[in-house]
Specification:
Rossmann fold, 19 strands, pyruvate-formate lyase- activating enzyme, five-stranded mixed beta barrel, single chain, about 425 residues, four-stranded parallel sheet, 3 domains, OB fold (Dihydrolipoamide Acetyltransferase, E2P)
Length: about 425
């Protein structure tokens, strides 16, 4: 399995592999030992499409029997035009079609005496953390995005099913649950927030339920709707991590209007202030787009000023690029590439300075960290303010020998850089 793209795609890969493992298939760590290769693709940006085509080409070259699935599978002609010899192309979430393609390529030979599957299924993440997908699809129509066209409208899972999966993961040793979807704030809206088997399908209720399980609970892709404020007391109480991943994308109202974003920025600073008043330790992460069609220098300056005032803890930034099928492609006033690059550089310089100052202020404080990896040089850990693979790390380079991945320990921070921390065990 070659899994590309976002954590939501990674969960799809885990579901496919769990089904295949239950049927007696083994998972090969390399091309040479495999009877077939599944490539789970990303199709969100042109650069991601190019990476997906490259991965398919590599799999064909190294193995020859390739099944393609995922977001780019929504455009089968695009794939077969570049790689006509693939065995099958299926779209996102089409698990049954993937299984059919695998059966055709390499028929199963089940053996009930050896086909044992752990209750938690197959995981592609380290054993101590896991992504927990609560819904599929999205009801928004942001002009730069084609996710609704590929993955459909919002489809929330029943809350009791999400909680049961989380319980099984924690029972299997997971110490951190990373809640993901396309729009986590909207969870349960399509179900009319119905209560089933004592669990209500609303993000606040779900977060409270998950917070009872004894694991870290981290929320991703949370739009800043008014009801998000109800989550912050749960963070202050320690039920869920004081961490919000919110895709603000921009700060100027005209830019947001051209983006057709579902939440205006007018009151966002007030909301951030309210969140911090309830939970002073909250970590805010976000992503932004610079160089969006029609973005003027004044609009970009507004974004920089907003960033100065918001003082976000973790920030990612992308230069706008066209995506086939996205409405933004037709907007007037596309920004020259050199201007996009210059604005990206200025944005990252400011956000890096904010991050550096915030981390420097942590020197001398004590904090809990979760251990991700240990080798002869030290332990790689994360604080509650750091999501795996997208935020920073905390490194322990003395007295780490007895630590193992998944341990949660207290450290005193003694050094900081722009994005990472160093500390010693207390």
């Amino acid at each position: 399995m070659v899994s590309l793209g976002c954590p939501k795609a990674l969960v799809d890969s885990e579901r496919i592999l769990t089904r295949l493992r239950a049927e007696g298939y083994a998972i090969s760590p390399d091309y040479g030992g495999a009877d077939a290769v599944i490539v789970n693709t990303c199709g969100f940006l042109d650069s991601a499409k190019a990476e997906s085509l490259e991965a398919i080409g590599e799999a064909l070259s190294e193995n020859g029997k390739v099944i393609v699935t995922g977001c780019l599978g929504a455009e089968p002609e695009f794939i077969t035009g570049a790689h006509p010899s693939v065995l099958a192309v299926t779209g996102p979430q089409q698990y049954e079609q993937v299984l059919d393609a695998v059966h055709a390529a390499t028929p199963p030979a089940p053996d009930p005496f050896v086909d044992l599957l752990p209750a938690s299924g197959v995981s592609l993440t380290p054993r101590h953390y896991s992504y927990l997908k609560v819904s599929e699809g999205c009801n928004h129509h942001c002009k730069f995005c084609i996710i609704p066209a590929m993955r459909g409208r919002l489809q929330s899972r029943p809350a009791h099913a999400v909680v049961r999966e989380a319980e099984k993961l924690v029972e299997a040793g997971v110490r951190e649950l990373l809640v993901i979807s396309q729009d986590t704030s909207a969870y349960g809206l399509d179900l009319r927030h119905a209560t089933e088997k004592a669990h209500r399908a609303h993000i606040t209720d779900l977060a409270r339920d998950l917070g009872q399980l004894g694991a870290w609970v981290r929320l991703h892709y949370v739009y800043p709707y008014p009801h998000v404020r109800e989550l912050i007391p749960l963070m202050a109480e320690g039920l869920i991590l004081p961490y919000l991943d919110i895709p603000f994308q921009h700060a100027h109202p005209d830019t947001l209007k051209r983006m057709a974003r579902p939440a205006a920025a007018a009151k966002t600073l007030d909301e951030i202030a309210a969140w911090r008043e309830i939970c002073p330790d909250i970590t805010l992460r976000s992503t932004f787009i610079v160089g969006y069609p029609g973005e003027t220098e004044a609009e970009f300056e507004t974004l920089l000023d907003w960033l100065d005032e918001a003082q976000l803890d973790r920030v990612g930034c992308f230069q706008y690029e066209n995506v086939a099928g996205a409405a933004a492609n037709e907007l007037p006033g596309h920004v020259p590439e050199e201007v996009k690059q210059a604005r990206w550089d200025r944005f990252m310089e400011k956000s890096q300075a904010i991050s550096e100052a915030k981390l420097a202020a942590k020197v001398g404080t004590r904090t809990e960290v979760i251990v991700d990896a240990v080798d002869e040089d030290g332990a790689v850990c994360r604080t509650k303010a750091d999501a795996p693979e997208i935020d920073g790390n905390l490194f322990i380079d003395e007295g780490f020998e007895r630590l193992t991945p998944g341990d949660i320990v207290t450290v005193e921070v003694d050094e900081a850089s722009e994005y990472d921390l160093w500390g010693r065990l207390v």
